[in-house]
Amino acid sequence: MSPFSHHIYNGKKMALFTKIPEKSFKNFKNTYSLYFFTIIFGVLRYNLVMSKFLYENYKDYFRVGAAISGIILMNDAEKDELFQNMKKRMEEFKKNFKPQPGMPVFKFPEPQPFPKGDMPDKKLAAEQFNLVVAENECKMGSIYHGPDQFDFSGADRLLAFAKQNNQAMRWHTLVWHNQSPRWIFEDGNGGKASKELLEERLKKYIFTVGERYKDDICSVDVVNECISDKNFVLRDGADRSQWFDILGPDYVDKAFFWAKEAFPNSSLVINDYNLEMIEGKRQGMYKLVKGMKERGVPVDTVGLQMHINIQNPPVSEIEQTIELYGSLGLNVIVTEMEVSAYVDKDFEHPDPRREYDKAFLDEQAERYAQIFECFRKEARAGILKDVVLWGITDRMSWKNNFPAPGRGDCPLLFDGDGNPKPAFDRLTK
Ligand code: XIL
Is there a catalytic annotation at residue 276? Predict the structure, then answer.
């Protein structure tokens, strides 16, 4: 329904129009002017205050973005090619898989063909957001296949989509202990890469990506998830960071200096999870970025992933976190938000599956609304710049498999079929 039809088919206004012929010409003119201005005002109000486009409701405060899964931008032929490759890789994996003695028999899931035609996520991505980021396609593992082998097809596809829809694009991510290619940490003779070799490879990667995308990327996650959950200092080799293990603790500063050269006009982000949830981790990140600023390292923004849930953390903690980093003169962006239905304690103890009934959906709507109000306040204070949701429809959310594989979750603004949930309605009212 267009904004015009919303007002013209409003029953009350139609009834008022029937009185017009009884008026004198002067009154008739005045009455018409009044109606005219009422309608124009109504249309403006609808467009400016109550837009059904999410990003428009926040455009004076922050951009609203979404992580885009590469699959939603592929045509049927591309999806089929991907499916055939996945099948081939699964067959190879099964052939080479050697179960350890005593290991239970593992049943490998069969890859399923992707649905034909566009998924609802694609249209929603184009309409509802003014910022995009690749959910997986700009990670090092998707791009850097060998010392001289780069595959930019997924990143290029998203950039073309963003340009077509007048959207800004972020880059996620340059350095991360996950989803990095295995070869980069190896010397080719069965040993570990030396510090010099790994540095050279990382530098080459950052500069190659920058060369190609520097004019198109508004902000870059330079280092992702580098704070340990155990002791809130830099994650080390024992905590799965081969970057730290081989390069030592100054890899973070170095990555930022190279990123500044490679992306001179983009904002440079240090991104992590649970900063708003766990006080110790929040302080750990504070110490790290304070030190970086003192050393002249060009970090300008802290990214809060905000994979939060229906209960935790309270809005006051989110507010305090944003203001804490703001007090260092840094900007804050929200990079990967969703509101899970589950309050899992940890991987080993996930909550049981629940029903997503009306009571839950309304509670989730209220929680999104309160948090977005806090975002508005922090944007007014000049600290918060962007808010990015980690996906569009519940069907495509990574939370359906994390931390409990196959449990299903309901954390986003649109249901599996692309229909707006109460949370979407609250944010656009
Ligand atoms: C997730 C993606 O959503 C999944 O599709 C993928 O299988 C694993 O990674 N923190 C991050 C993101 O920085 O890159 C992660 O994305 C979610 C947690």
Answer: no
